[in-house]
Amino acid sequence: MRGYLVRLDKELLELGAVELNPEIDRLYSGKDTIEFINIKNEIRKLNINREEKLIQGRGIIGLFRPYSSEHVFFDVLADGRIRISQFDDSIKNYIDKDFNDHEGVEHVTHVLGSLCSLRQGEEKWFELYDHAGTFVSGAKEDDLVSLSHLRDVQMFQYQIKTVKAVLGRFRGRVLLCDEVGLGKTIEAGIAMMEYLMKGLIKKILILVPPSLIDQWYYEMKRKFNQDFIRADDPEFKNKGDQAWEFYPKVIASISTAKRKNNADIISKVQYDLVIVDEAHHLKNRKTLAWQFVNSLSKKYIFLLTATPVQNNLEEIYNLITLLKPGQLKTFSYFKKNFIGDREGLEAKNVNSLRRLLADVMIRNKRSDVDIKFTKRAAVTYTSDLLPQEKKLYDEISSFVRKRYNDSSRGLTRFVLKSLQEEMGSSFRALAGTLEKLISNHEMDDIDTEMMKGFLKDANNIISESLIPETKLTRLMKIIDGFGDKLVVFTKYIATQEYIAGYLKKQGIEIAQFHGGLRRKDKEAQIKLFRESARVLVSTESGGEGRNLQFCNGLVNYDLPWNPMAIEQRIGRIHRVGQQRDVFVFNLAAANTLEHYILELLDRKINMFELVVGEVDMILGDIEDEADFSELVMNAWINSLDHSTMEQQMEIIGQKLIENKKQYQRVKELDEKLFADSFEISKAGG
User: Fold this and answer.
1) Which residues of 666-679 are buried (b: 16+ CB within 10 A; e: fewer)?
2) Looking at residue 618, what is its pLDDT?
3) Helix (H) and strand (E) counts for the chain?
């Protein structure tokens, strides 16, 4: 008889499933069902769901009901059935069976007792057990032991070869430069898991742009089962300066981490692994960001970027120097031997440079990998606000313009910006914020009365409207015309409830998803959407890290002001593994700020037709200098009429066009410098 310790997730069990232990999966590799016996001698035949890595079947909840522990033992019997044993009982059984001498029993009992006394829901003991299992699995040195522990990860051969190269030839210091959309995050995550499971790392710092914090946090949690803490989490902030040392796994924006008060503390911490996403933001070694990353004490470092060169060849020199100082010698040597023109966009001695880069860099290209990429198309529907809606929109916009550069107490720029954004979603979203502001005693009497007037008008629009918002009627037409599943995104819970209520009245089966749901409720809503619901109404925080490729239609009911946030929404369905072309429907009211943003992004850079990931490349230094949403907000504030607003947006648009042209030039250099030179098979596969 052989036993396996298994985590019993109570929330997952309520959904009729338990996690499939990797060892059990291997042991029963040729079977689709397993017969289980519990402590009451009740017998159930359960199904193995290898796609979801779950054990499921009728009667599973009752079968496991007698067990109160967070972990149980699966004892494999001689006849192939599995007996489910209590955690503590099985320990005693194994001691009695395997040790005859009294001294041995005492020693093992003492050790196991000590382990179990580290109780945090028995998690410490389970981690030790799970970790030990990786050393007895009989894996060869270059085998990847973490693959069976991943969730919702579709692996490709080039990614497996890439991870093996990172761990082997590159020894954990590498520039991952796959072309956009090929899954650099997955490669970095798997390499991280290999180091974790082999006991080579404990302390990890992930540095990303602010707009990608949510995405990394949810992907690490869902796909890799790793609990990172965000540097903007109140729990992290409450620890003060000690937080960076206290927490073993941290995700932070590089803009936060590089601040002097943080950088001085972080540079004293010894990290086992540092991961930097969108590493092209470290292209200039004279910046604080580059100097900060260079100052970190780190055993391993992964730099991720699809464009190692954005403006000139000096940038690749700066990135390589972070990984392996001296690899390209001094910059004067590099410039003399490898840069062929003043602009730094012409390379010479290309073959020699390629050989040097191949020691620290992996680049998979779309043309060389076994992935089908689908197209995407977008349609924008513009509608007119109803007269009473337009009147309130204009009044609040005028108020925001007057107050934005002269914020009074209780009305910060953040609050004023929120009012403007909420109107672009729905007046129900606006009303909730107005109610909170009125109860804020820090506002003066004049502003309080203004907020009361706005709230009264908003409530009149909500209660007196006999017809739904024009965006809602347009949404219904899209649902009817599309004829397949759709994800409808909104930023606000109030708008989500409004949309959901309306669609239910129209007889549309829906699922609802937002960040406040418990895990079991999230799983249930995704399951409902996958199986029968026509529409998933979701907020951004709800959709992060979820596999929704079974759907190929998306509606932006409201519009984030940052293009990267729009891209992340689309990325929920348009990603590796999507088999169909993707359709995006954008809704906006005429002459609103959202309408101007859509016009800008669609007309100037054809954003909705770009390859996944190219938006960030085109934003480039615009995002380095200021948040895109701040740029458009400032344009709005400084425009008293539509003509001025169009002029302001034209200025931003021209910068985007210049960036897009520069990106095309960089792609040409990229093709010359990196084409056919970094096959993974050569890199250590």
Assistant:
1) beebbeebbeebbb
2) 65
3) 32, 20
